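Hello Y.,

Per our agreement to keep a running log of every chain we model this quarter, I'm adding this entry. I've kept the format consistent with earlier entries: sequence first, then predicted structure.
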Amino acid sequence: ADEQVLQEQFLADSDIEVYDLGEGRYIAAFLDAVPGRDDENKMGAYYSVYNGDEWSEPKLLHDDGTEDQAPTISDAGDAGVLITWSSAARALDADDDLSTRLNTLDIEGAFFRDGKLGEVMDVTASTDADTFADTNPQAVCYEKDGKSYIKLYYTKSEFSVSSEEEGEVIGDLLNPDQLNLVREYDIAAGE
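Predicted structure for the entry above:
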């Protein structure tokens, strides 16, 4: 098969996911640097669709100027596929240390159906009471009582500096307090 270049100077660790849409069509979601963005917000989650002959030009899933991480693609039954990813709740700046950067991560998602990307949804959102990182989204679609649901599993982590005197140390980043959580989404009701 012939090769097709999707993007030049592609990241070596792009977290690429590919999903079979059927009938020789595929969708890919991946990370790459966004041209023109500052270093603190350079990573963007992209998608591209293979129509059976060629891949579409990659597009950002959500061009909000914030850092993205770890896109995933899951079957959503009649709703198509659900693409989820972690995204910073705000634009990051050079003064943000690594634990602050990580704690800004929320989860966004969008359905892809009939060749179109739907509206981007805030699946989780930081609040004054919830300033923890939401990462590693994984979705499962299932039927119950004739209705379609999605269960979204994800990790909630608190990255914190253990000693103000020492500052941020590697153990703080490797061993955060964590919970594994699940949310249920009623596809027909949109909630």
